[in-house]
Design goal:
The structure holds two protein chains of two kinds.
Chain A lengths: L7 E4 L4 E5 L6 H12 L4 E5 L8 E7 L2 E7 L5 E5 L14 E3 L2 E3 L6 E3 L4 E3 L22 E5 L2 E5 L7 H5 L2 H9 L6 E3 L4 E5 L3 H9 L4 H4 L1 H9 L7 H4 L5 E2 L5 E6 L18 H25 E7 L3 E5 L3 E10 L2 E11 L4 H14 L7 H15 L6 E3 L14 H14 L21
Antiparallel strand pairs in A: 1-2, 2-21, 3-12, 4-5, 4-7, 5-6, 8-9, 9-10, 11-12, 13-20, 14-20, 15-16, 16-17, 17-18, 18-19, 19-20
Chain B lengths: L15 H17 L3 H5 L2 E10 L13 E6 H12 L11 E15 L2 E14 L2 E16 L2 E11 L15
Parallel strand pairs in B: 1-6
Antiparallel strand pairs in B: 1-2, 3-4, 4-5, 5-6
The chains are: A alpha+beta, B alpha+beta.
Chain lengths: ~425, ~170
């Protein structure tokens, strides 16, 4: 049995926050995470736009479990465990498609796209106790949708999704409200594996501190395009925000333009009017202040435990799952307003490619950084990772408060305490470390 | 337009098939030897270099998400990044070895030569072995007596970047 106590040292009075590195290397801890985090929380599955038409389906693994989701002929999106109720074979064996019925190839049991068992060859071979109505495809215990983002939970007693999302809701709203006709996932996904513990990508995705040193070549590139990147020096000075329940956000000032709705010279004069029109629409609907938040401020939002919505020069949706303590699978998609077409959509996708993705000018270096951490842990002699940055002050985006919030809630779930306070105590209560 | 016959002819290139194969092997050698500035000179100024995602090999960069869609400006920047000690995924550089086979001249259209080939690119670094497997589509063009790349598309056959983590080298 793993001794959880002692994995995290959280001492605000002394200004110390440390995580024991076995949290990133131990198979026993991963096993506990499976039971106490991934089997307990709400988990991101998909965006509803991924199955737009009746019969559209896609398969996807969540926390190592094979699932698929399908829009039934009745228009309703359902999620099923991808296993035949007969003897277990995978029902959905293509990554995506469209079907009225799904047939298990093993014994040809047939299910409609609403999960009902509608065909069993030679059903007379079963006795009276065989009830076809009870043998439909099974769903995860809980499925819910918040503004297009579909979550599932393997925990039947989990709180409702809106309560779970806590203040992360406001940040999802800031994304979804940018669209006039709703959001959609763009076709084409980034699927890559990283030889590091999954929690290191949580840390990396929320970490404003690494951006300037790690991504030097990115800033050199955009500077060469004529973008004034001087502002990046102070871009990460905004207050750090934690959102309850382990959710957190790293907000910073955008130094580049974005299709919604901040024009910059890279968009070209020909798109200036269109972007101004979108901005005016937002101001009319949401007012100046909220439009400023939507269009000028970038944010990396963690929906606990492993969904990132990165709303900056593009909108990246990224989810990642542990395979072993030292290996994770990452999938990333691009989210765009349904009405966005042509040149603005092309600019958005181009923005993504400059920074994000396995071929971008920044993401490969993030992969390298966290794989490097994982490799460094093998040295063993240094037992603790240090995450106290900003603990002595009102933390800003390039401090490590967001990371501490994640870890505090991780400890809450792992130790059975449930929801815990994830903020640093007020500065006044940390008198011994002030200044 | 029908597929060009083996060893098809184009004005000014007497032995086209041989010239195309030599060109592809030379490109591979420049990349394996990290002679990236020389490699860049193989491209026309209006060139494009595209790598689609593994789940959408037919991806169109204008409306689909791809891994890479470089014009000559970004291609030059990519090379600068690969030469920088701050391009961390490739500093120090990986060792690579490219195998190109199944070269087919698919089509001749005005001054464009459409060529497809199969590739296997091995990347070795930090104890890892990452094979990239797929096929190339090169659109070549004769400029001042030399073949140049107008469009290069590297399509991966793998289901995901399982061992690779990134497309940090040029494919």
């Amino acid at each position: 049995m793993v001794e959880l106590k002692g994995l995290i040292i959280d001492n605000p009075e002394a200004g110390i926050f440390r995580v024991h590195r076995s949290a990133m290397t131990s198979p026993e801890i991963l096993q506990m995470e499976q039971e106490r985090v991934f089997n307990k929380c709400w988990l991101y599955l998909c965006h509803e736009s991924e199955v737009e038409n009746p019969g559209d389906y896609r398969r996807r693994n969540v926390a190592g479990r094979p699932l698929f989701f399908v829009r039934g002929s009745d228009g309703k999106l359902r999620v099923f465990l991808n296993t035949c109720t007969h003897r277990g074979a995978l029902i959905c064996r293509r990554d995506q498609g469209n079907a009225d019925v799904l047939q298990c190839f093993y014994h040809a049991w047939t299910f409609n796209n609403q999960g009902e068992l509608i065909g069993v060859p030679d059903q007379a071979g079963y006795g009276k106790s065989f009830n076809r109505g009870e043998m439909g495809l099974k769903s995860p215990p809980r499925v819910d949708n918040y503004r297009g983002f579909v979550f599932i939970s393997f925990n039947p007693d989990v709180e409702d999704l809106v309560t779970y999302l806590a203040d992360a809701r406001d940040y999802i709203d800031l994304v979804v409200d940018q669209a006039e006709e709703g959001m959609r996932i763009i076709s084409g996904s980034n699927r890559y594996f990283v030889k590091a513990n999954w929690k290191l990508l949580v840390e990396n995705s929320l970490d404003g501190y690494h951006v300037k040193p790690t991504h030097k070549t990115y800033f050199e590139y955009v500077t060469s395009l004529g973008v004034k990147t001087g502002a990046v020096q102070t871009a990460f000075s905004r207050p750090a925000r934690v959102l309850g329940n382990g959710h957190a956000v790293e907000e910073h000032d955008g130094v580049r333009g974005r299709p919604i709705a901040r024009w910059s010279p890279l968009f070209g004069e020909e798109n200036k009017e269109e972007i101004a029109r979108i901005r005016a629409r937002l101001v009319e609907k949401f007012g100046e202040q909220r439009t400023h938040l939507m269009a000028d401020i970038s944010r990396n939002l963690l929906v606990y435990p492993n969904l990132m919505i990165i709303d900056s020069i593009d909108i990246t949706v990224r989810v990642f799952w542990p395979i072993t303590p030292e290996l994770m699978e990452v999938t990333a998609w691009q989210l765009a307003p349904k009405e966005e077409k042509g040149e603005l959509l092309a600019r958005r996708l181009d923005n993504f490619l400059t920074f994000h993705g396995p071929g971008g000018f920044a993401t490969p270096d993030d992969v390298e950084a966290i794989e490097s951490c994982q490799a460094g842990y093998k040295a063993e002699g240094v037992e603790w990772s240090e995450l106290s940055r900003g603990m002595h002050r009102e933390a800003i985006a390039e401090d490590e408060l967001q990371l501490r919030a994640f870890w505090r809630q991780w400890y809450g779930y792992m130790s059975g305490l449930g929801k815990v306070e994830t903020r640093d105590p007020a500065v006044g209560e940390r008198s011994s470390v002030a200044s | 337009m029908p597929e060009a016959s083996l060893g098809g002819k184009i004005d000014g290139v007497p032995n086209l098939r041989e010239a195309v194969e030599d060109f592809l092997y030379q490109e591979a050698a420049l990349l394996d030897e990290w002679r990236l500035d020389e490699w860049l000179k193989l491209f026309t100024v209006d060139a494009r270099y595209v790598v689609p995602t593994t789940d959408l090999p037919e991806g169109d960069p204008k409306k689909d998400l791809v891994f890479i869609d470089d014009d000559i400006v970004r291609l030059r920047a990519r090379v600068e990044r690969l030469k920088s000690r701050h391009g961390h995924r490739e500093f120090p550089w990986s060792r690579t070895r490219r195998f190109i086979t199944n070269v087919r001249i698919k089509q001749l259209e005005e001054d464009n030569i459409f060529v497809t080939s199969s590739f296997l690119v091995y990347r070795f670094r930090m104890g890892d072995t990452n094979p990239y497997v797929g096929w190339y589509e090169h659109r070549l063009k004769q400029v001042d007596g030399e073949l140049k790349i107008r469009h290069k598309r590297s399509v991966l056959d793998m289901e995901a970047l399982r061992d690779h983590g990134a497309v940090s080298i040029i494919l």
